[in-house]
Amino acid sequence: APASLEFKIKSTLIHHGVCSFKDSPTVKLFIDGKFVESKTSEWLDVHNPATNEVIARVPKATQEEMVAAVDCCSKAFQTWSETSILARQQVFLRYQQLIKDNIKELAKSITVEQGKTLADAEGDVFRGLQVVEHACSVTSLMLGETLPSITKDMDTYTYRLPVGVCAGIAPFNFPAMIPLWMFPMGMVCGNTYLLKPSERVPSCTMLLAKMLQDAGAPDGTLNIIHGQHNAVNFICDHPAIRAISFVGSNQAGEYIYERGSKNGKRVQSNMGAKNHGVVMPDANKENTLNQLVGAAFGAAGQRCMALSTAILVGEARSWLPELVERSKALRVNAGDQPAKARVCSLIQSGVDEGAQVLLDGRNVKVKGYENGNFVGPTIIGNVTPEMKCYTEEIFGPVLVVLEAENLDDAINLVNRNPYGNGTAIFTTNGATARKYTHEVDVGQVGVNVPIPVPLPMFSFTGSRGSFRGDMNFYGKQGIQFYTQIKTVTSQWKAEDATLKSPAVTMPT
Ligand code: NAD
């Protein structure tokens, strides 16, 4: 992100009142409809990963501030849950238009803090916007069920109702899309929402909160706190919070799932991944290699659905040199510091364990950004399943390549891996594709589609080690997560059918 862009986004944040300016902007909390400066003495630096400069400071909210935020959620729930569903829908109809109108501004705030390119940042906002659009069809999604005449004069019907105060804990890699998976779905169902964005990329969420307020969300319906472990523990423990949505690493997600569940909360936890692309020798070579390179290295591999592992099957094993050549041609323009150290050490672990680095991006230099944290496209060949570079999520621009004799071997390999977020098969044979989609134990499968993230009318259905919980994010499952069912059984008898004596046996 160039310095001019950084200056522009600082001005935007201050202009909207979501940051104030001292040495560097300080990000505010959003409590009861006001953007307020935290009284904390503990602050975290937010870096521009391309320059390593500190561009803002984010507070670790104090206990009093976090309690105040939840109290506002509880109070607002009383009126918001009783607000007509059509009025709630109207807020989100206005909201989707505001996001559309400001997509470029939101994207800039992402590029400056997260490091992805502007075009990719617009995609980040756009995929979140689609969830907001989907939330606008809540009226049909929240319909209950009815069964008339279950016995004489008796009917049963269900209401789908909000659960109460919900909370979201977001990761750094999609500063717009993932918060937008959370609070719009939760709020349109009638819940109020406490959000903790990633402390590494808070600004985009603050702009999104301002736009939601401008769209007419009443004060206190969305509150935002910042922080790290303390804030997370607070969310897991506070008795008023009924449901937690988490997206991030396995380390944090498993912990939050366990702590939140122990406290009686619903938790949906979307976690890490190791997504395999299986390349069959009958695949369209040109198309497959381009898709593989794009899906492995786009957004510096920092997408939970990035294709980070390729399995070349049979004759497709000979395509490796061409895969390396195409990857070499990519231009490097993003990175971030803690990620760089982790990525480089996992590449080295591959070398130490006997793998072969066919393309090495560790020492890449980007002119004008000598202090940036860049890693170029890297391909590791001769990888075997027990190597650390295969067993651990790298979450960087690194493609790990394994080989398989045939489709059965490839399926076994994928199913033995503990993660189940996404996978893709590249083939021109329908029967091969059908066998793969049927037998592979992964929640989201692409056939000649490298990153098969479902649109919001479906749900994000990562499985096995990539997910904990029962109900997935967005779509029908998202609505289920943010609602509970009340079942009413009612009897209206005509006068002359009045019971003459008490019925003491179980009705059958
Ligand atoms: P992260 O787990 O470090 O952070 C996510 C959130 O959890 C942040 O708000 C952070 O403050 C908090 N957190 C971090 N460590 C914690 C801990 N030890 N205890 C309690 N809370 C903690 O994740 P990240 O680095 O921001 O994001 C990258 C990860 O997210 C990758 O593993 C990626 O695969 C995953 N991801 C998954 C999906 C999905 O839908 N499955 C989508 C995006 C990202």
Automatic annotation (TrEMBL):
One of its GO terms (molecular function) is methylmalonate-semialdehyde dehydrogenase (acylating, NAD) activity. Keywords: NAD, Oxidoreductase. One of its GO terms (cellular component) is mitochondrion. Coiled coil: none annotated. It catalyses: (S)-2-methyl-3-oxopropanoate + NAD(+) + CoA + H2O = propanoyl-CoA + hydrogencarbonate + NADH + H(+); 3-oxopropanoate + NAD(+) + CoA + H2O = hydrogencarbonate + acetyl-CoA + NADH + H(+); (R)-2-methyl-3-oxopropanoate + NAD(+) + CoA + H2O = propanoyl-CoA + hydrogencarbonate + NADH + H(+); 2-methyl-3-oxopropanoate + NAD(+) + CoA + H2O = propanoyl-CoA + hydrogencarbonate + NADH + H(+). Residues 35-488 form the Aldehyde dehydrogenase domain. Belongs to the aldehyde dehydrogenase family. This is Methylmalonate-semialdehyde/malonate-semialdehyde dehydrogenase [acylating], mitochondrial. The lineage of its organism: Eukaryota, Metazoa, Chordata, Craniata, Vertebrata.
